[in-house]
Amino acid sequence: MDEARLGFAWAWTLLDGLARAGLRRVVASPGSRSTPLTLAALRHPDLAVQMIVDERSAGFFALGLAKADHEPTALIATSGSAIANWAPAVVEADAARVPLLLLSADRPPELHACGANQTMEQTALFGVHVRAFHALPPPDTRTDWLADFAARVFHAARFPLPGPVHLNIPLREPLTPAGPTSAPETRPVPLVSKGRTAPDAALISSVDARLTGKGVIVCGPETLGEDARAAILDLSARLNAPVFADVLSGLRFSAPDDAAVLAHPDAVARQKPAFDWALRFGGTPVCRATAEFLRARKGAAQIVVSDCARFGDPDRIATHLVQADVALFCAGLRGRPAPADWARQLARLDDAAADAAETACAEDAPFEGALLRRLLAGLPENTPVFLANSLTIRSAEWFAGRRARALKIFGNRGLSGIDGNLSTALGLSAALGPTVAVLGDLAFLHDLNALALMRAKKLTVLLLDNRGGGIFDHLAQAALPEFEAAWIAAQVYDPAALAKAFGLRYSAAETNAEAVAAVLENLAEGRAIVHVAIDRAHSLARARKFFASSQLETCS
Amino acid sequence: MDEARLGFAWAWTLLDGLARAGLRRVVASPGSRSTPLTLAALRHPDLAVQMIVDERSAGFFALGLAKADHEPTALIATSGSAIANWAPAVVEADAARVPLLLLSADRPPELHACGANQTMEQTALFGVHVRAFHALPPPDTRTDWLADFAARVFHAARFPLPGPVHLNIPLREPLTPAGPTSAPETRPVPLVSKGRTAPDAALISSVDARLTGKGVIVCGPETLGEDARAAILDLSARLNAPVFADVLSGLRFSAPDDAAVLAHPDAVARQKPAFDWALRFGGTPVCRATAEFLRARKGAAQIVVSDCARFGDPDRIATHLVQADVALFCAGLRGRPAPADWARQLARLDDAAADAAETACAEDAPFEGALLRRLLAGLPENTPVFLANSLTIRSAEWFAGRRARALKIFGNRGLSGIDGNLSTALGLSAALGPTVAVLGDLAFLHDLNALALMRAKKLTVLLLDNRGGGIFDHLAQAALPEFEAAWIAAQVYDPAALAKAFGLRYSAAETNAEAVAAVLENLAEGRAIVHVAIDRAHSLARARKFFASSQLETCS
C-alpha cells in the first residue's frame, strides 16, 4: 500500500471507529497535512462535515454543536499554529464540560526537531485542559486496535466529566490518494456505558437531617437535563422551597406557572431572606447578588450537588459537596417541608421585583434589560437562544423574568469569555435550526470571522450596540481617568456595512419593540443582524433605578 | 495598605522593573482582573500601551512590534479564555524566536478549584512553547526582589533563544485603587548582557577543511542582522560562492548590485547545479525547490549555522551543525575560492530565470507573481513589507527578483500559519511607520478583527483575492472531487463593504500596474485596502508557464 493509501486507511479506520461509537459531526479547517483525516470524514456516510477557515471559530462552532445535544463533535486541523487556535474553545469546553474530539494532524517524527515547516511540538498542547491526550504513531498497516481505541476515546470525552480529548495524529506525504478510495475493512466497536453517579447513602442521610426549616434551591448557569429539572421541581414542591434559577439553568424558561421558580431571583436575593438550608445545583450563579445572599447565611446547611467533581462554591461555605446525578439525588431525599408562608414571602418579593422590572422596561428607548425581557417573552416555544457574556447575560438575569413555554437558553459560562460567542451560536443553529443570538458590540467584534459562516445558517443576531464594554460601567473601573481609553475601548464600526460584506440581512431598530419585532420577523430564515444602538448613560441610569426601586445596591 | 493599592504597587514594581530592563511597548486587552497591570502600564512614563479587544489579534500585534526591533513586547490580559487566545501568537513567537512577555492576570489561589467565574488553571498554559514560566504569588508588601526578577525575565525572553516568557500574576479584589496613585519606590535593576555565541575553534577548522571546490551559501527565511548580512556578502565574495537568499532573509532586498546574490534562487535551484559545499544560514528555505537542490547533493559538505540550537535541516543531510553567531562564524572562516566560472555559470541560470519571470509578469491581467514583482521593485527605500503565508510569500520567492535599495521584508515563517498575519503587519506599522502588507483573501479573512485597529495605523493592504487558498492549486489536493468544497472553501465576502465598516480607504484595481500604483499612492497615509481580483486558473497557468519556460517542474 502506498503512503497516501496507508494514511487514508489509517484516518478512515479511526474516524469510522468514532462514527460507530456515535460521532456524527465533524468541523474541519482547510489544510494540507490533515488531508487524510478531512477526506476520510468527507467520504464517511455517517459523518457531516462543516468546513471553517478560522480554527478558532471552528473550535467554538464545534462547541455550539456539542452543546446542542451533549454529544462529542470532532475537530480536524492541520499542524502548527492552526491547532493553537483551538485553545480558547478548548479551555471553555473544559470548564463548561462540553465533549470535543480534537484531531490534530502532525508531521511524522522524522520531521520534528529539524526545522521543518509548520512543525511544532503538539504533544500535550492543551495541558490539563483535556480529559485525555494520546499521541498516535504514524500510519501503519496494523489497525486492528484503532476502532476499539476510537470508541474508548469517544467515551472519555463524555463520561464521567465531559470535555475535550486530544489525539495527535502524525501523517506522512504523499497525503492525497490518487483515484477513488474504498472503505477499508471495518470493525464493530464495543458499546460503552455512560452511567450515572448514584448518591452515597450515608451522605444522603446526613443531608436529609439538615433539610429542616426554610429552604431554598439554587440552580446555577449549567443547563439541567429534563429529568433533573423535573426532579428539582418535584423536590421544590414537596419541601415548599422556592427555586432561585439562573437563566441558563433552563428552569426559568420551562417550569410551569405554578412551580415555585422565582422570576427575579437576583432581585429577591438582594433582600437576603434568611434561609435555613440551601440545595445548590449547576455551578456558581452568574450574578453576584445570589452569591452574597448565600454568603450571608454562612453556617446554614449549604449542599452543593454536582454529577462531576466540579463543585461551584467560591466562598467555600458549603457544608456538603455531593457528587451525584441530580435526579437520583433529589429522588433520594426526604426532608421536611418549610412553613407555608416561607414560599409566599419570597413570592411577594419576587412580585415586587417583577413590577419594578416591568416599570424599568416600559419606556421604549433602547435598553438592554427591556430588550432581553421582551425578546425572551416573545420568542416561539423551544427557540434556541444564545446569550453572550458580559452585560447581555446579566441583563437577562436581572430583567427577563420567566415563562412556562420552554426556550432553549445557552451561553458560554465555563470561563465566561467574550470570545467565540457568535461562532458558538452558529454551531447551535446548525444543530437546532432557527436560533437567536444576543450579543454586545464587543463580543460581536471579538468574533467577526464567524460572519463568513452566517450566510448559510439560520441565525438571527440581536446586536446590543452600547459602544464598548457596558459591563464596566457597573464596576469600579468606571471611576478611573483612563476608563474610556482602556476599558470602554469604543471600537467604532458599521454593522450595516459588515452585513453587506457577508451578504447578510440587516435592520436597525430605534426602539425595544422594533428590535424584538425585527428578530421575530427574521427568525425563520436567519442570516440577519438586528442592530440597536444603546446610550450607555441612559442604560446605566435605568438599571440603577431598577436596583434602587427594590432597595437594592448596584450589582455586577 | 488596602488590597487595591497593594495590587497596584505590586503590578507597578513589576512593570517598572521591566521598563528599567528595557521594555517600552505593552499591548493590553480590556478586562477586570488585569486592572492593576493595565493601570500600572498606562501610568508608567516609559511604557506605550496599545489597547486591543481581541487577545489573539493583540498577541500577533505584539509579535509584529517585537519583530520590528527584536526587543520584547509585553502582553496583558485578564484571566480565563482571554489568555488562551494568545496561544497562536505564542507558538509562532516560539518557532520564529520573537521575544514576548506574557503577563496573565489570574484569580488568587483561594478562588481556584471552587467554581469561581473566569477561573482556570493557568500554570504552564503554553507548555514547552515558552522559554520560562513563573507563577507569581499574590500581591505582597515584600517587593524588594521584583525589579531584579523582572530584569532576569526580560533577559530570558531575549537570550540565548529569543521567545515568549510567561508570568502568571494572581491579583485580589478590589482591583481598582481609588484616587490618584503615586509610584512606589523603585529600584535599579542589573544590566544583563545578551552575548553572542563565538564559534568553536575546532569545528571551524573542520568546516574550513571542507570549503574547497564549488560552494553555495543558502540563506533561509530568518531576517539576518546587518552585521550578518555584511559578513555573508564578504564571505561570498572571498570564496566566489553565490548566495541563494530567501526573500525574508533581507539579502535579496539590500545587497549591492555587484554582490553574487541570485535574484531567482528558486529557479536556479531547480536546475540542481552540483556544488561541493553549502553553507546554510537562517532556517529552512520557503520553497521546496531549494530543499530538493540541497537533497540532490547529499554527501557534500553541508554546514548549517545558527546562533541558537534550532538547525533547519529537515532532510537531515547536514554534515555540520554549528551553533555560532553568523558574523563571527563567517569572519573566522578562511576557505578557498571556487573556480571563477562557477559563479558565472549560476549567474547565467539566474539571468535566464529573470527573463522568464519578466515575460511571465509582462501581461497586465492580475497575477500574484507580477503583483509581487512590480510592488517590491517599486516601493521606496526601507519600506517595511509584510508578506502573508501560503501563495503570497511563494509568489514573492518565485517572481520578485532582487534590488539594492533596501526593503524591510517580514513574514511569519516560524509556523507559516495564515493566522494573525494582518495583526502582525499592524504591529510592524505601529513600530516602523508606513508599511505594506500583501495578503491572500484567506489570510485576510482569518484575521478580520484586526480591521478594528487599522484606522489608526499607517498600513496599506494589498489584497490578492483569488477566492480561497490558491496555494492548493499547486498541490495534489487539487485533483480531489472534494477539492472546491473542502480546500478552496471560497468564502465570498465584499472587501469594499469591510473597508466601509471600519472607516478604511478602499480601491479596486483591474491590473497589476493599477494595483501597485494604488499601493504607492496610499502608502504614506495608510489605513487603505487595495483589492485585486485574480482568476485562479489564469494565475496557475502563468505560474506553470514560468516553471516550464526554465524547464522546471511545478513546485510548492
From TrEMBL, chains A, B:
Record key words, sorted: Magnesium, Manganese, Menaquinone biosynthesis, Metal-binding, Thiamine pyrophosphate, Transferase
Cofactor(s) this protein cannot do without: thiamine diphosphate; Mg(2+); Mn(2+)
GO biological process, one term: menaquinone biosynthetic process
Pfam family, one: TPP_enzyme_M_2
Location of the Thiamine pyrophosphate enzyme TPP-binding domain: 408-528
UniProt cross-references to CDD domains, sorted A to Z: TPP_PYR_MenD, TPP_SHCHC_synthase
Top-level taxon of the source organism: Bacteria
Sequence similarity: Belongs to the TPP enzyme family. MenD subfamily.
Name of the protein in question: 2-succinyl-5-enolpyruvyl-6-hydroxy-3-cyclohexene-1-carboxylate synthase
